Amino acid sequence: MTVQTVHFSRGIPPREAIPSTAIAGLTSAVLTAEPDRVFQYAPIGRHTGDQELREQLGKFHSVDPDRVFVTNGSLQALDLLAAHLLRDASEPQVLVEAPTYDRAVQIFRRHGARVSGVPLRHDGLDLDVLRERLRTEVPAFLYVIPDFQNPSGVTTGEDKRRELVRLSAEYGFTILEDIPYRELRFSGTAPTPLGDLAASADGARVLTIGSLSKVLSPGLRVGYVIGPPGTPHALAVLAESIYLSPAPLLQVVAARALADGLVRQNLERIRQLFQPRHDAAVEAVRQTFGDIHLCIPDGGYYVSVHLPIRTDEEAFLAAARNEGLALTRGSAFYPVDSAPPPGTAFLRLPFQALDPEEFAEGVRRLAAAAEQAV
Ligand code: PMP
Are 255 and 335 in contact (CB under 8 A)? Predict the structure, then answer.
């Protein structure tokens, strides 16, 4: 094997997961048929997104289109929701899983939140710790990634989901569930979305954040929020004052990709593409490290480990670089008040873009780096 760098760094779709030719075909059909629609401003006045796209997203998630608000990628959904939910509070607290998606933490902090971590176990948040925390302070919201979490790969189990929704009703806080990887399930049964559970739990408040980045194309920048109809309206007022609307062309292309079945077809295809990569990754981690992985994910992009190391994280990362590994700093996935267990490095290992030999070689190099004492 040639000694090229093994990239365990970015969670982006590999090029073979993006149906570029089919999207290009849809785009040129839209450009020819509907130039007036896609080259003009979108209608203003509480505009919640292209109507056709909202209808398609409503169908995809079996919800009323009036509950859908379209954004430029789900990161913008996080930004607008943070602005909306934190607007009147002084030094609001936001609870997140520890570890969690680092960019989300940065966004919440930029909106003035004190972001605090609740430990994540193999099947979701540690609910004993969460209950304890709720008794002291009720957060402005709780942010969770319940399906194939970034960075850990953990899926929150059905019972924990029910309890989270119950706690939202009991204490009166909102839950943001971010579900970009939900459809990428290779095996097993999907637990119920928190948003669906909230519909039958009096007083529970769940806002769902979705994205087409992992199921179709991240370059289209189509994200969305699903919430009670008041939420799309409130977000529309904010959005209009910043950027009017997402680009009409990209929204119409996304709507056609949903309507023509391209998203469903692509999902079938990428599940088949990723499953062998997932199986090989799980096998390589198990064989080399035994049981230090947090969970065996049945889908998504990530496996993760708490790797025992003999140095601090900085020295370990330097050793890993020398071994030819590109890693993301694991402590960066922990909000400031939390950290990986002492004596370990937390490592997110994305498998979606690596062939089995490459992943196994990466794991061998990790083991070598972890052995180094200086
Ligand atoms: N949320 C999570 C949990 C993610 O992993 C990502 C992308 N890595 C995003 C949001 C952002 O996705 P988008 O391309 O829709 O902005």
Answer: no
Residue 81 structure tokens: 């929701």
Distance from the CA of 180 to the center of ligand 1, in angstroms? 6
CATH architecture of 20-260: 3-Layer(aba) Sandwich (3.40)
Distance CA 46, CA 244 (A): 9
- Between CA 217 and CA 146 the distance in angstroms is 22
Architecture in CATH of 6-18+264-372: Alpha-Beta Complex (3.90)
Give this prediction's pTM.
0.97
Residue type, 156: T
User: Which residues belong to CATH 3.40.640.10 in the chain?
Assistant: 20-260
Backbone angles phi, psi at 119, to 5 degrees: -60, 140
Q: Which residue has the tokens 């490095």?
A: 345
Q: Which of 178, 207, 215, 221 to mutate to test the pocket of ligand 1 (most atoms within 8 A of CB)?
A: 178
For residues 252 and 52, the answer to whether their CB atoms sit within 8 Å is yes
Distance, CA of 185 to CA of 299 (rounded, Å): 4
In this prediction the ipTM stands at 0.99
CA 279 to centroid of ligand 1, rounded, Å: 23
- Tokens 């093994």 appear where? 6
Q: Which residues in the chain are classed under CATH 3.90.1150.10?
A: 6-18+264-372
Residues 72 and 243: their CA atoms lie apart, in Å, by 10
CA distance 142 to 320: 34
Which residue, among 193, 150, 77, 192, has the nearest Cα to 352 in the 3D structure? 150
Q: Quote the ligand 1 centre to 74 CA distance (angstroms).
A: 6
Q: Could you give phi then psi for residue 23, rounded to 5 degrees?
A: -65, -40
**pLDDT tens column, 114-166:** 999 999 999 999 999 999 999 999 999 999 999 999 999 999 999 999 999 99
